[in-house]
Amino acid sequence: ATGCASINAWSDAPGTTVVFQSDCDLVGSNADQVNEIFRSRSGNVLNQLTSSPGEPCTNVTPVISLDGRSVVFSSDCDLTGENVDLSSEIFGLSSTTGLAQLTDDVGTSGCESLAPSAATADRVVYYGYCNPTGENNDGNLEVFSRVDGNVAQLTQTQACWSTSPKTSGDGTTVFYLSSCNLSGSDSDGEPDIYVDSLCSCGA
């Protein structure tokens, strides 16, 4: 359609399934041209996975979990009735449990949870400047995880940033980019790649 775009495509490992965001009316159910999440499967099977009619909101940056069973993405839409303040949250769509809101930043005004990555529906990492655990009062850009329902702040920094986390295939490790001196041996302020363990809170 004229004036619309399909972007941020992500493929599963076999290359048979692709998810992406689009404000086009690709299957006849997005006439209001909201940025929705779509899935394309081999055999020319195209599905619209989200539906946000009439809302001034967007569903963005979808990825397929590494086990291939879920799609996670960021959205400021009220997709499940739990995001009435229309904050930017992480959502997951699983073939077994359906659509769920994975983060809830109620009370953190104007913050965003962004660009998720997932090994499974229960092992998700993302970055943002919200304060879901009470450890990010300065609103710095930090890396977070949600493992088995527990949200944890993985980086705790000031005057620098940490972004773009990715999980390992088994969901036990997270890699991310940071301009912080997290190791204590790199003070040039240039961004570097870090690796950390990913586990349930209290484990």
Structure at a glance:
With 203 residues, this protein is mainly beta. Helices cover 0% and strands 42% of the residues.
SSE string: EEEEEEEEEEEEEEE
- Spans of at least 5 consecutive residues with low confidence: none
Give the helix/strand class: mainly beta
Largest pleated sheet = 4 strands, antiparallel
Please, what is the average pLDDT?
A: 90
Q: How far apart, in Å, are the first and last alpha carbons? A: 50 Å
Strand content: 35-45%
Please report the total strand number as a whole number: 15
- The helix tally amounts to 0
Helix content: under 10%
> In order across it, which strands form the biggest sheet?
1-2-3-4
**Spatial extent as radius of gyration:** 17 Å
Question: How would you characterize this protein structure?
Answer:
Helix content is 0%, strand content 42%. With 203 residues, the protein is mostly beta strands. Strands 1-2-3-4 form a 4-stranded antiparallel β-sheet, with no helix packed on it. The protein is globular.
Please tag this protein with its features.
single chain; mainly beta; 0% helix
Which secondary structure elements does this structure contain, and how are they paired or packed?
Elements: E1 6-11, E2 17-22, E3 36-41, E4 45-48, E5 59-64, E6 70-75, E7 89-94, E8 98-101, E9 113-120, E10 123-128, E11 142-147, E12 150-153, E13 162-167, E14 173-178, E15 192-197
Antiparallel strand pairs: 1-2, 2-3, 3-4, 5-6, 6-7, 7-8, 9-10, 10-11, 11-12, 13-14, 14-15
